[in-house]
Amino acid sequence: MIEDKERWNKRHVEKPMRHSVEPLLEKYMKEANVGKALDIACGIGRNTHFMHEQGFEVDAVDISDYALSQIKEDEKIKKIETDLDTYNLELENYDLIVNINFLSRRLHPQIKDALKPEGVLIYETFIIAHGDFKNPSNPEFLLRKNELLHAFIGLDIIYYEERDDINLRGENTRVASLVARKS
């Protein structure tokens, strides 16, 4: 965990990410009931802050204490510094779960179980791409074609797409995006 924490702290300092909210979240957050939200691998809180401004109480989870220090102090934002390789989600606790640019296949079943009935999942991360793309080089952090869709079978799919995109640092990338609701 310490190596991951140091690596992410360094990355946030040396290669800062944009501060603007994720467009997928901005477009589809209205699908969720305002209540409790979870921002998985929240980084510096760009999506945490947006959800908070829309009235959500937000659990912001990240391994980087530096990134979490960039999130404003507020009684409705709970910062959780932890390693997502070992962290477990609470059952039926969230009206909205956001997972952007992070992949932990271990968490997929937990994410489904952590949604309250009618809870909404907004998930976007990298998929395998070839050519001039700057996706993570470790295949463990890349989805295969349609993998995200299959991982959340059982939820009502509102939106799904795989497309070329530009990452937080302005590089060409390929992503899968999913918005789904728990029945």
Short description:
This protein is α/β, with parallel strands linked by helices and 183 residues long. It has helices at 2-14, 23-28, 46-53, 65-69, 108-114, 147-151; strands at 36-40, 57-62, 77-81, 94-100, 115-126, 156-166, 172-181.
Structural account:
With 183 residues, this protein is α/β, with parallel strands linked by helices. The chain is built from six helices and seven strands, in the order H-H-E-H-E-H-E-E-H-E-H-E-E. It has a single domain (2-181), classed as 3-Layer(aba) Sandwich (Rossmann fold), CATH 3.40.50.150. The protein has helices at residues 2-14, 23-28, 46-53, 65-69, 108-114, 147-151; strands at 36-40, 57-62, 77-81, 94-100, 115-126, 156-166, 172-181. Strands 3-2-1-4-5-7-6 form a seven-stranded mixed β-sheet. The longest helix has 13 residues, at 2-14.
How is the secondary structure organized here?
Layout: H1 2-14, H2 23-28, E1 36-40, H3 46-53, E2 57-62, H4 65-69, E3 77-81, E4 94-100, H5 108-114, E5 115-126, H6 147-151, E6 156-166, E7 172-181
Parallel strand pairs: 1-2, 1-4, 2-3, 4-5
Antiparallel strand pairs: 5-7, 6-7
> Which CATH class is shown?
Alpha Beta
How many angstroms separate the termini? 35 Å
The CATH homologous superfamily corresponds to: Vaccinia Virus protein VP39
* Low-confidence parts: none
CATH architecture: 3-Layer(aba) Sandwich
How much helix, percentage-wise, in residues? 10-25%
Largest sheet: 7 strands, mixed
Rounded radius of gyration (Å): 15 Å
Strand order of the largest sheet: 3-2-1-4-5-7-6
Structural class by sheet pairing and helices? alpha/beta
- Give helix and strand order, one letter per element, not per position: HHEHEHEEHEHEE
Discrete helix count = 6
Share of residues in strands: 25-35%
Q: How many structural domains?
A: 1
Q: How does the overall form come out from the CA principal axes?
A: globular
GO molecular function: methyltransferase activity
InterPro entries: SAM-dependent_MTases_sf (IPR029063), TehB-like_dom (IPR015985)
Pfam family, one: TehB
Keywords: Methyltransferase, Transferase
